[in-house]
From TrEMBL:
One of its GO terms (molecular function) is hydrolase activity, hydrolyzing N-glycosyl compounds. Keywords: Hydrolase, Signal. It comes from Brevifollis gellanilyticus. It comes from the Bacteria. InterPro entries: Inosine/uridine_hydrolase_dom, Ribo_hydro-like. Residues 27-193 form the Inosine/uridine-preferring nucleoside hydrolase domain. This is Nucleoside hydrolase. Residues 1-22 form the signal peptide. Pfam families: IU_nuc_hydro.
């Protein structure tokens, strides 16, 4: 075969086998945006990745109770050029009520938007069901980075397990702990402990056929967002909702761990090697909130769950990717 033909053949072969050609993830971002600020940075990453064409951003659902959540998310979505992105809020009275240091920015004239009250937002599970039903089968990636109220209530809704089985490709969830972290081998992580029953429903009832990738506390703890970036990288707008939220929550002298951002990065770029994966197995949520992982042995037992792992090389790559996706300006 002549050289140029061989080259063409090899290029075609590469293109056909390239994961870049795989269908882009269609993402739903399920967040408890209230207490911690990593949700704000993670939501920004969803916008940046959608702006790059790396994913299709279907909507946001909110899993904790605070009257300003929907308004704040709409303000941030408006900053990032998606003023009409669907937003759903939990109305489950068992969802944790939570004060916030930064949601008040929703009331600032610096961040105009048109969804001003949670009462005007959709109910989260109703929105999740509608978004899922409209998508092709096995095409939706749900990124869940808060308490599991919406995920549990989705499963409990009529036909919910079958809907997840039919439409969802992956659940990328920030919850639990799977390695030594925070000074212990038995860390009780907040997204679990703030709603243990919800997380138990997810761990017990999520369909076996739909993989769950867990980002444990230890992953975000090892990804401290650099405070220098907050100081330097958001000056392209006179007021920046990400910068102001971060400062209201963490102040200028803290490198906030990127717990939620890790689940976004994995969900959209699972094949880029930012993280490793544990062997397959099953997570059980104990009554005290600990997440116990049992590996499948010899092909026996559930293989639904894996958790993220990270080498030091992956740590530096993942952190820089998170920073670059967080500081990326909105599309003009
Ligand atoms: Ca969160």
């Amino acid at each position: 075969m002549p050289y140029h033909m061989m080259r063409l053949f090899l290029l075609c072969l590469f293109a056909l086998s390239s994961p870049l050609l795989a269908e882009k993830p269609r993402i739903i971002f399920d967040t408890d945006i209230t207490g911690d600020v990593d949700d704000v940075l993670a939501l920004t990453m969803c916008h940046s990745l959608a702006d790059r064409g790396a994913c299709e951003f279907l909507g946001v659902t909110i899993s904790k109770d605070n009257p300003l959540t929907a308004s704040f998310v709409d303000a941030q979505n408006t900053v990032y050029g998606r003023p009409d992105l669907p937003i759903g809020v939990t109305r489950d009275p068992k969802s944790q009520k939570r004060p916030s240091s930064y949601l008040k920015l929703a009331d600032s004239p610096d961040y105009p938007h048109d969804l001003n009250r949670n009462e005007d937002a959709r109910e989260a599970v109703e929105l999740l069901r509608e978004l899922l039903e409209k998508q092709p089968d096995h095409s939706v990636t749900i990124i869940s980075v808060g308490i599991a109220s919406n995920m549990a209530n989705l499963l409990k809704s009529p036909g919910g397990v079958d809907l997840v089985k039919k439409k969802v490709k992956l659940l990328s969830i920030m919850a639990g702990a799977f390695a030594f972290c925070s000074g212990t081998n038995y860390h009780l992580e907040a997204n679990v402990t703030n709603g243990i029953g919800f997380m138990q429903t997810v761990a017990n009832e999520w369909p076996e056929e739909v993989p769950i990738i867990w980002s444990g506390y230890e992953i975000g703890e090892a990804l401290p967002y650099p405070r220098q970036s907050i100081a330097r990288d958001f000056g392209y707008l006179p007021h920046h909702i990400v910068r102001e939220s971060y400062l209201l929550h963490s102040g200028p002298n803290h490198d906030r761990p990127c717990w939620d951002e890790s689940s976004v990065l994995y969900a959209v770029y699972p094949e880029r090697g930012f993280f490793g994966l544990s062997q397959p197995g099953r997570v059980k949520v104990l009554d005290d909130g600990f997440t116990r992982f049992t590996p499948a042995r010899g092909g026996k037992g559930s293989q639904r769950d894996r958790f993220l792992t990270m080498t030091s090389v992956q740590q530096s790559r993942a952190l820089e990717a998170i920073v670059q996706l967080t500081i990326q300006p909105p599309q003009p």
